[in-house]
Design a protein that fits this description.
Mean pLDDT of chain B: 94
Largest sheet of chain A: 9 strands, mixed
Strand order of the largest sheet of chain B: 15-14-13-7-12-11-8-16-17
Oligomer: heterodimer
Helix content of chain A: 25-40%
Strand order of the largest sheet of chain A: 13-12-11-7-10-9-8-14-15
Number of strands of chain B: 17
Shape of chain A: globular
Number of helices of chain A: 14
Mean pLDDT of chain A: 92
Distance between the termini of chain A: 30 Å
Radius of gyration of chain B: 21 Å
Strand content of chain A: 15-25%
Structural class of chain A: alpha/beta
Number of strands of chain A: 15
Helix content of chain B: 25-40%
Chain lengths: ~475, ~425
C-alpha cells in the first residue's frame, strides 16, 4: 500500500488534488486517495491489475480494450450470449470465460482485482454490488443503475467497502466539461436559472407494445441469466441485443442512456444534487386505425420532455433543467446565428445554459462549449484552467479508474459523484411513467412526496433468487 | 365590439342585404341547405340545421352515409358534389365536411355558384387554398363560416375582453396544445390493396390529391394523419385552440415558424422520416411581430402528448387538460381561460362584456351562419377571419414537414423566404381533371 505514496508526489497529483477540492463542493467527491483509507486490494502502480468484464460483448468490449491497452491483465470475461461474447473472447485467449457473473466472481475471486460491468441497465446493480461486496473495484457503465434505489445502495456499498469506482460516462474525463465548469464558475454567463438539454435518442424503437411472438432463444444464449432480477418474459430480439434500452423492465430509455453524458456538465458545473420536483410530458402512439394507445408503461415513450427543478445551492439560484428527446428540441436561442446548428451540429445532443448575463452551448459530453453569439465567445477572456485534466481526456476514462485502483486519487466519476447523478437522471423516469403530474421529490428519502403511485419505480422488486 | 373586431381581422359588419349580395333570403324564409361529406362531422352540422330545409346530401361513401341519408329522407342524394351543384339549383347554402384535402375545391365551386358556405376546420388543406377561398368569398359576397364552433362561444369572448382590458398585461408568450392525434401517425404507407368497397367512389374521395390505392388506413376518419389528405393534429385542433390567441392577440401573419418532430425508429439507428404521415408528436414555434400596442409574441404549439411547462402560478395539484392554451402576460398568467392561481381569478373582476354574444354560444355557430345567409351581419368566423387563421395553422403544418428548420414567412406574399423548397408545400398541383 505504501507504494502508492510515490504517485502522490507527482505534479499531476497535486493538481488533481486541487481539482478534487473544487469537485467536493460540486458533488462530494472522495478526495482522499483510497489507499489512505485502507481500502481493499489497491495495487501499487508498478503492478498490473487483473480485470474481469461482465457483459463483454457490447459496450464492455471497448472498455476492456482500453484497459488491456493500458497494460492491465484481462483475466476473465463474462457474457450471457456466447455468440456476442465470442468476438471478445477471441481477443483475450488467456481470459477465462463465463456466462454467469456470479459463478465467475465466485470462481475467480482470488484472481480478480477489478470488474467492468457493461450489461444492460437492469443487471448493473446486482453485478456491481456482488463485486463491491467482494472488495473488487468497479467500473460500471452508465447509467450506473436502472432505479434510484439501486444507485443509492451501490454508492453506499462502495463507500462501506472502500472500493474504487467509476461510472462509464467517459465525457466526465474530457476537456469540454472542465471548460464548462471553469467558465460558469468564473461567472461567464452570470447565475444560471435555466438549462435545456437534448438528445437524438432513442435511435431504437420506443412507444411500442410487447411482442407476442416467441421465437426460440438463440443458441448459446442463457435467457434466464439475461433476464436476471427482472420479471421473466419470453425471449425476443426486441430486447437483445441493444434494444433493451426501450423497455421499462430492462432499460432506462433515452434519458438513462444519454443524460449521464449530456447532463453531466450541468450536474457538475451547477453543483446539482437532488431536484425538488420533476414533471414530464410524453408522446403517445396510436395503434392502427386509432383510439388505442400503444406501449404505455411497457416502453419509454418515443419522445419526451422532462422538466426538473433544483433548489438554490451554494450561492447559485434555483434552476430549471429541461430534457428533450426523441426528436424534440428546446426553442432555438435567439443568440444562435441563423444557419448555425444547435450544439454546433453534434448529432448526439447538447446543452444550453441560460444565465442572467449570457448563454453557453455545448455538445454531448460537454464537448465544444461556446458562448453564443460567437462574437461573445471571441471577446471572452477565458479563465485559467484550474481543474486538472485527465490524460487523454475521454479516452483516458478507464485509465483514470485504473490509476485510482492503484492507489491514486478517486476516479473522477466515482460513485460519490455518479451515484447521486444517476439517481437524479433515472428519477426523471418516474415522471416519464407518470406524465403531466408535478412530482415533488425528497431526494434524501428517495421518495415522491405527493404521488404514491410514482414511487413504484423508485425500487423494483427482484425476481426470486436475486438480491442486491 | 364591431370596431374591435374590424381591427382584428376586418370583419364585414354591414348587413349583407344592404350590399345586394347574391341569394340572401329574407329572415322569414327557410334556407335550402346542402351538405357534402355527411358521414362524419357533417352529421353534427346537419343536426343543428334541422330548422332549415335540408335539400341535398352528398357523400362519396354511401354506406358510411346511409344513416344520415335515412335521417333526411326528403333530401336528394348525391355521390359527386359537382353533379349536385350542377343539377340542383335551389340550394342556398352548402355545408362542407369532407376530409381536409377536398374542402377547397368544393367550397370554391359552391361559392362560384353563388352559394353560401359553411366549411369545416381547417378551412383548407393548403395555405394557397385558404388564401384563394378568402379572396373568392370577398368577391362573391356569399356568407361564409368556418366550423370552429368555439368561435361563437362565451369562453373566447371572455378571454378577449380580459386580455384587451389588461388583465395580465402585455402578452409575449402563448402555449397551445392538444393531446391528439387519436389516430395513427408516424407510419408508413400500407402496401396491401384491398378492394374498394362497392359503396365507395374512391376516385372522388381522392379528389385533387395524388391517386393511390384504397385502404381502410385512410377512410373513414383516419385520413387526418396522412400528408396527402389531412393536416394532422395541428390542422385538426389548431383552428380551435389557436383561435383564442389569434383573436385576443390580433395575430395576423407570423414572421417565422419552426417545428420539431418526434421521430420513430423501427430499426436501430434508422428513423422513419415522416414522408407519408405527420409525426406522433410535435412542437411548432411561431414568432409574431408587434401589432399596434401589442409586443411581439411567441406562440408554441404542442401535440401528441407533449405539453408546455407548468406555469409557476398553477396550483401543484392541478394538471393541464388534454387541450388548452396558456397566455403569459407581464402581469399574470391565464391557463385554459382562467387566471392562475385560482384565488387570483376569484378576486378578479371581469370587464363588462363588450363583444356581442352569439345566441347559444358554440351550439349556435351554424345558426350564426344562417343569420348571415339571410342578410344579417357576417358570421363570426367568416373567411376574412378564418382564412388568415387557417393560414397560420397550416404554416405550422408546413413546418412539421421540414422539421428543425426556421422558416421565415412573408405572409402578404405567401412565401417562405429562406428555404426555397418549402414553398412547394404552400400549394399543390392538383391531379388531372381538378382545379380550384
Amino acid at each position: 500500500m505504501n507504494n502508492g505514496k510515490d504517485s502522490k508526489k507527482s505534479k499531476n497529483e497535486i493538481s488533481r488534488r486541487q481539482l478534487l477540492g473544487s469537485a467536493v463542493a460540486a458533488g462530494a467527491f472522495t478526495i482522499v486517495p483510497s489507499y489512505v483509507l485502507g481500502a481493499n486490494g489497491q495495487k501499487p502502480p508498478s503492478e498490473k491489475l487483473n480485470i474481469a468484464t461482465i457483459g463483454a460483448g457490447g459496450m464492455g468490449r471497448g472498455n476492456t480494450r482500453r484497459c488491456a491497452d493500458a497494460g492491465e491483465n484481462i483475466v476473465a470475461l463474462c457474457d450471457v450470449d456466447e455468440k456476442k461474447g465470442a468476438l471478445v473472447y477471441a481477443e483475450y485467449p488467456k481470459a477465462k470465460t463465463y456466462k454467469d457473473f456470479r459463478k465467475m466472481l465466485e470462481m475467480e475471486k482470488n484472481n480478480i482485482d477489478a470488474v467492468i460491468v457493461a450489461t444492460p441497465d437492469h443487471t448493473h446493480a446486482v453485478a456491481a454490488m456482488m463485486a463491491i461486496k467482494m472488495g473488487k473495484h468497479v467500473y460500471c457503465q452508465k447509467p450506473m443503475t436502472r432505479t434510484v434505489y439501486e444507485a443509492r445502495m451501490l454508492t453506499e456499498a462502495a463507500r462501506e467497502h472502500k472500493v474504487v469506482t467509476q461510472m462509464g460516462n467517459q465525457g466526465h474525463s474530457g476537456e469540454g466539461i472542465r471548460l464548462v465548469c471553469e467558465w460558469i464558475w468564473a461567472d461567464a454567463i452570470g447565475p444560471v436559472r435555466e438549462v435545456h438539454a437534448w438528445t437524438n435518442r432513442p435511435v431504437w424503437a420506443q412507444g411500442i407494445d410487447r411482442p407476442k411472438d416467441t421465437p426460440p432463444v438463440p443458441e448459446g444464449m442463457d435467457w434466464d441469466l439475461w433476464i436476471g432480477p427482472s420479471p421473466m418474459r419470453p425471449y425476443n430480439p426486441a430486447y437483445h441485443p441493444f434494444a433493451w434500452r426501450a423497455w421499462v423492465d430492462f432499460g432506462s430509455g433515452a434519458l438513462g442512456d444519454m443524460a449521464c453524458h449530456i447532463l453531466d456538465p450541468a450536474f457538475w458545473a451547477l453543483k446539482l444534487k437532488y431536484p425538488v420536483s420533476v414533471e414530464a410530458s410524453t408522446s403517445t402512439r396510436m395503434a392502427g386505425t386509432g383510439w388505442d394507445k400503444v406501449g404505455v408503461r411497457e416502453t419509454y415513450p418515443q419522445a419526451s420532455i422532462v422538466r426538473y427543478k433544483f433548489p438554490a445551492r451554494e450561492g447559485m439560484p434555483e434552476v430549471k433543467v429541461n430534457w428533450y428527446d426523441g426528436g424534440i428540441m428546446p426553442a432555438r436561442p435567439e443568440e444562435l446565428e441563423p444557419g448555425r446548428r444547435m450544439a454546433f451540429g453534434d448529432p448526439d445532443g447538447g446543452v444550453l445554459f441560460v444565465g442572467d448575463k449570457g448563454k453557453l452551448m455545448c455538445g454531448c459530453y460537454g464537448s465544444n462549449p461556446r458562448l453564443i453569439p460567437e462574437k461573445k465567445m471571441e471577446e471572452y477572456k477565458r479563465p485559467a484552467k484550474t481543474l486538472p485534466r485527465v490524460d487523454e481526456g475521454t479516452d483516458g476514462h478507464e485509465k483514470n479508474w485504473i490509476e485510482a485502483c492503484k492507489g491514486g486519487p478517486a476516479a473522477d466519476s466515482n460513485f460519490e459523484y455518479s451515484g447521486p447523478f444517476t439517481e437524479t437522471v433515472v428519477m426523471g423516469n418516474l415522471a416519464m411513467l407518470n406524465p403531466y403530474e408535478l412530482l415533488e421529490w425528497d431526494g434524501e428519502k428517495m421518495k415522491v412526496t405527493n404521488n404514491d403511485k410514482a414511487n413504484e419505480f423508485v425500487k423494483s422488486p427482484y425476481r426470486e433468487g436475486w438480491v442486491l | 365590439m364591431a370596431g374591435a373586431a374590424t381591427a382584428v381581422a376586418g370583419f364585414t359588419i354591414v348587413p349583407r342585404h344592404v350590399l345586394g349580395g347574391v341569394g340572401f333570403k329574407a329572415p322569414s324564409e327557410k334556407l335550402n341547405i346542402a351538405c357534402v361529406g355527411i358521414g362524419g362531422q357533417g352529421k353534427e352540422n346537419l343536426r343543428k340545421s334541422e330548422g332549415e330545409n335540408i335539400v341535398a346530401l352528398c357523400d362519396v361513401d354511401w354506406e358510411f352515409a346511409a344513416p344520415v341519408f335515412a335521417a333526411y329522407p326528403n333530401a336528394k342524394k348525391y355521390k359527386d358534389y359537382r353533379k349536385m351543384l350542377e343539377e340542383q339549383k335551389d340550394i342556398d347554402g352548402v355545408i362542407i365536411a369532407t376530409p381536409d384535402h377536398t374542402h377547397a375545391v368544393i367550397a370554391m365551386a359552391a361559392m362560384k355558384a353563388g352559394k353560401h358556405v359553411y366549411v369545416q376546420k381547417p378551412l383548407t388543406w393548403s395555405i394557397d387554398e385558404a388564401r384563394k377561398l378568402t379572396e373568392t368569398a370577398r368577391q362573391t359576397k356569399v356568407a361564409t363560416q368556418m366550423g370552429n364552433q368555439g368561435h361563437s362561444g362565451e369562453e373566447i369572448r371572455v378571454l378577449c375582453e380580459m386580455i384587451w382590458s389588461g388583465a395580465i398585461g402585455k402578452v409575449r408568450e402563448v402555449h397551445a396544445w392538444t393531446d391528439r392525434p387519436y389516430w395513427a401517425q408516424g407510419i408508413l404507407r400500407p402496401t396491401e390493396t384491398p378492394p374498394v368497397p362497392a359503396t365507395l367512389d374512391w376516385e372522388n374521395w381522392i379528389g385533387p390529391a395524388p391517386s393511390r390505392a384504397y385502404n381502410p388506413a385512410y377512410h373513414p376518419f383516419v385520413w387526418r394523419g396522412w400528408l396527402d389528405f389531412g393536416t394532422g393534429s395541428l390542422g385538426d385542433m389548431g383552428c380551435h385552440i389557436m383561435d383564442h390567441a389569434f383573436w385576443a392577440l390580433k395575430l395576423g401573419h407570423p414572421t417565422s415558424v419552426q417545428a420539431d418532430n418526434a421521430l420513430r425508429c423501427v430499426k436501430m439507428w434508422e428513423k422513419v422520416e415522416n414522408k407519408e404521415t405527420y409525426p406522433d408528436a410535435s412542437i411548432v414555434r411561431y414568432e409574431f411581430p408587434a401589432r399596434g400596442d401589442m409586443p411581439p409574441v411567441r406562440l408554441t404549439w404542442y401535440d401528441g402528448g407533449l405539453k408546455p411547462p407548468r406555469p409557476a402560478e398553477l396550483e401543484k395539484e392541478r394538471t393541464l387538460s388534454g387541450s388548452g392554451a396558456i397566455f403569459i402576460g407581464d402581469k399574470g398568467t391565464i391557463v385554459e381561460g382562467r387566471i392562475v392561481p385560482e384565488t387570483k381569478m376569484q378576486e378578479y373582476k371581469k370587464p363588462a362584456p363588450s363583444i356581442p354574444r352569439v345566441k347559444e354560444g358554440a351550439d349556435g355557430h351554424e345558426q350564426n351562419w344562417f343569420d348571415a345567409c339571410r342578410g344579417g351581419p357576417a358570421a363570426c368566423s367568416n373567411f376574412e377571419y378564418a382564412g388568415p387563421l387557417t393560414e397560420v395553422v397550416l404554416l405550422g403544418t408546413v413546418a412539421n414537414r421540414i422539421p428543425g428548420k426556421v422558416l421565415e414567412w412573408d405572409g402578404p406574399n405567401m412565401k417562405i423566404t429562406n428555404v426555397p423548397e418549402a414553398n412547394d408545400l404552400i400549394s399543390r398541383k392538383y391531379r388531372a381533371g381538378w382545379s380550384l
